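Encode chain A's predicted structure.
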Amino acid sequence: MIGPSMNDFPQHAFRPHPWQFDPWACTSPVMLLTGSAGGGKSKLASEKLHAFCQRYPGAMALAARKTRESMLNSTVLQIERDVIGPDPHVRHLHSAHRFEYANGSILAYGGMADEAQREQIRSIGQQGGLDIAWLEEANRFSQDDFNEILPRMRGRAAPWRQVILTTNPDAWTHWINQRLILGRGAQVFYSHASDNPTNPHDYANTLDSLTGIMRTRLRDGIWRQAQGVVYDEWNPTLHLADNQGPWKRTFAGVDEGYTNPAVILVIGEDGDGRKHAITEFYGARVLQDDLVAQAAALAAAHNIETFYADPSAAGLIAALRTANLRVIEANNDVTDGISTVKTHLRPAGDGRPRLTFSELCVNTLREIETYAWDETTLRIKETPIKSNDHAMDALRYALHTQAPVTAGHVIEFAQPEILTPRELPFADIPI
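Encoded structure for chain A:
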């Protein structure tokens, strides 16, 4: 039994690229879509879930990312706007986290960041289990997450069931590579940016500009371990969280850039002293005035009390202060700053780290997994490679330079509208 036929392609938009024909027709229990950035993996997976729900009445489908907040702010928007569109036969029940089809099919969505989110996943399709499931950014999931999904694949709406995983390559030691690729636990399909004619004309140049392990994974699509990673304490199972506060205080690290990306990393601290990276601004070719406006907007939205900025960015610091934002010149000692971050990443006595991250911090997560020591300097001094490290600098500035707000100091924040990416002239960063 093959998958949806050519006649089952949604008529509103989707037409497969040549590499997508085989995975579209694949009915293997587990299917992995991997390769370089920009190949069209997520588009194919979301269209396949939608077509499955249309073809098989009463089907139970699941789309999941590691955290529910990242699901709501990315994948759900893609499904709603680019896949389902204005289809009168499908309605979106936001409060129930699902799409309902006129033929009785349901496409639910959620996360697996904590026990509450896992419990919601377990409650989906209790009568007959799942027919098809999609794990987006699958390298963020643990093997336990994957093992939790497999027993739920017992739906009977179709003569076949499938778990789809989509991900860019990660370390060669990652469980996906070891179990699904090398261990042949999945039908694997590879794609590259050149396979997707809908990419912007300069997208290939963007990928060509990457260096080191990022180039190997995102441009070449190869599963490879970063040599000498700085933050070897990093563990997505441990450090990814869907934490909404409340926060005792919020602060931010700022790294200036124009040709290189400028970064504002917003961090919340709870009553227990634990910190959580809430969100990020990350963009290249951002003018100073636009960066200040974004900082003011983030300050208003998250009640940021202090910005810790690159001490060499004197002009930016002055502009932030002119905008009535409290700024402290960061301690830029790289070695001590890295040590501070590593201390926060290590589990405390209760097994929990002092620092976690939201999946909304997409570029910060990308950097922390690949930030590596410069092997040419290790005999003299441990120095990280000065590349793809802009969020790492902002993180270090914020954590290593924290200082309490001066007693009695009242900060008045401006209340501008939060700028959208389209309102800022920065280049797309490949994910």
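The chain has two domains: 6-208, 236-423.
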